[in-house]
Design brief:
Elements lengths: L1 E5 L6 H15 L3 E6 L13 E5 L13 H15 L4 E5 L4 H14 L6 E5 L2 H4 L8 H10 L2 E4 L2 H10 L6 E3 L15 H7 L5 E6 L8 H13 L4 E6 L5 H11 L5 E5 L4 H5 L4 E4 L8 H8 L4 E4 L4 H4 L6 E4 L4 H12 L2 H16 L3 H16 L8
Parallel strand pairs: 1-2, 1-4, 2-3, 4-5, 5-6, 6-7, 8-9, 8-11, 9-10, 11-12, 12-13
Helix pairs in contact: 2-3, 3-5, 8-9, 8-13, 11-14
This protein binds ligand GMT.
């Protein structure tokens, strides 16, 4: 098939899922056209069957807010016509599903019918998508899509709870490249960071408020207090970085903490990790947790959103109530001070990650494309 994929170009979240899906589909013989306002971070190599189309928005003295959604719709129309697209798959509803709806109507006038699939990822439903300034348009655009997927059961239910959607939503979870995300020997790196063979605790995020990075530091401080010699490695950057750095200074634990900034090869850090912390206040799936688990790292997470569908309590790590720092620290100490338990959880984590193997999930998307193209998608029961 010739497939148009639309996404944000981000380092994490929907941008990663969309780009990895594009690569997986290209590997299965499809021709992919990716549209975004910048080259997606994970589209870092030349791929012969993937063409990237930058959506450029011309400024004009009247425009305080240049209309990206219209420029995107125009790009979609161009690609449907000139590249003969069979299907449009947009990631993150706002504004991509709306642009797709518009493009679909325009090409219909010209005798072309292109199915539109919208994948819901997270804050497009749980936060910004249901903001009163966008809600009607987001709801309409999702409902008018020919097929809708969500990355977890939680997100599917949340979508029905927050919007009037008559479409049947198919759950297709995030996925993982098990060959890339696996524990590999990084002993030189481990030695440099942990000269005394300290335990390594890792957090990876975009440091937005919802990720609770200052709480990661608090949990770590308590683990240190318990006497476990350890280091905290924080990967990523964003609005809460300064707050987290200040927290380290306040708690006097800066020498045990390293802020590594944004990194492309997260799997190298995960390869030396003993524990992964993800205490998020909202998380529809938790791709970062899956990446850690795939590298055989037990996870301690909050018990919210889609995280319990990924991290299994007592098996691949532990879940704690939101903001329960003591609970997370206690479980951290438990895992790090019991080598047998750690080994078992590390194995379980990798096994669990195998359920989300990339090829298998890409094939689910492929099947869904066929169903939608054949017009066999049902309405909500
Ligand atoms: O809201 C974000 O953090 C970004 C968002 C996105 O759509 O880019 O991430 C969401 O999508 C990821 C991929 O499907 C999920 O793994 C994340 O859990 C989800 N983030 C949140 O719900 C906060």
């Amino acid at each position: 098939m010739k497939i148009g994929i639309v996404c944000y170009p981000t380092f994490g979240g929907s941008g990663v899922v969309a780009t990895e899906l594009a690569k997986g589909l290209a590997g299965r013989g499809h021709t992919i056209h990716i549209m975004s306002y910048a080259r997606p971070a994970r589209l870092d190599t030349l791929e012969s069957d993937i063409t990237y189309h930058e959506v450029s928005v011309n400024s004009y003295p009247l425009f305080e807010y240049p209309p990206y959604d219209l420029a995107l719709a125009t790009q979609m129309v161009n690609l449907i016509e000139y590249e003969d697209l069979d299907l449009l798959h947009v990631h993150y509803a706002l504004p991509h599903a709306t642009s797709a709806y518009l493009a679909k109507q325009i090409v219909r006038e010209r005798g072309l019918d292109v199915p539109v699939i919208t994948t819901l990822h997270g804050t497009d439903i749980t936060l910004i998508g249901n903001d009163p300034s966008y809600k009607h348009v987001v709801e309409f655009s999702i409902d008018k899509s020919d097929g809708v997927t969500a990355v977890s059961e939680y997100l599917k239910n949340e979508t029905y709870a927050q919007f009037e959607i008559n479409q049947d939503i198919r759950v297709i979870p995030n996925f993982i490249d098990l060959d890339r995300f696996k524990k590999s020997n990084k002993s030189h790196f481990k030695k440099a960071i942990c000269p005394n063979d300290e335990k390594v605790i890792v957090h990876v995020s975009n440091f937005r408020k919802v990720k609770r990075v200052p709480e990661v530091v608090q949990v770590f401080a308590k683990i240190l207090e318990s006497g476990i010699e350890s280091k905290l490695l924080l990967v990523g950057d964003g609005p809460d970085r300064q707050k987290a750095e200040q927290q380290c200074r306040d708690l006097g634990i800066c020498e045990h903490t390293r802020f590594l900034g944004k990194l492309d090869q997260v799997e190298e850090v995960l390869s030396i990790a003993d524990l992964f912390l993800i205490p998020s206040g909202s998380e529809t799936f938790g791709l970062a947790a899956l990446e850690a688990m795939s590298c055989s790292v037990p996870v301690i997470s909050s018990d919210i959103g889609g995280l319990p569908e990924v991290n299994i309590h007592g098996e691949t790590g532990y879940l704690c109530a939101l903001d329960d720092i003591d609970c997370m620290a206690d479980y951290g100490v438990k895992i790090l001070s019991d080598p047998k338990l750690h080994q078992q959880m590390a194995e379980n984590a990798r096994k669990r990650a195998e359920r989300f193997e990339q090829d298998k999930i890409v094939a689910e998307y492929e099947d869904f494309y066929k169903e939608v193209s054949d017009g066999v998608i049902a309405k909500k029961a």
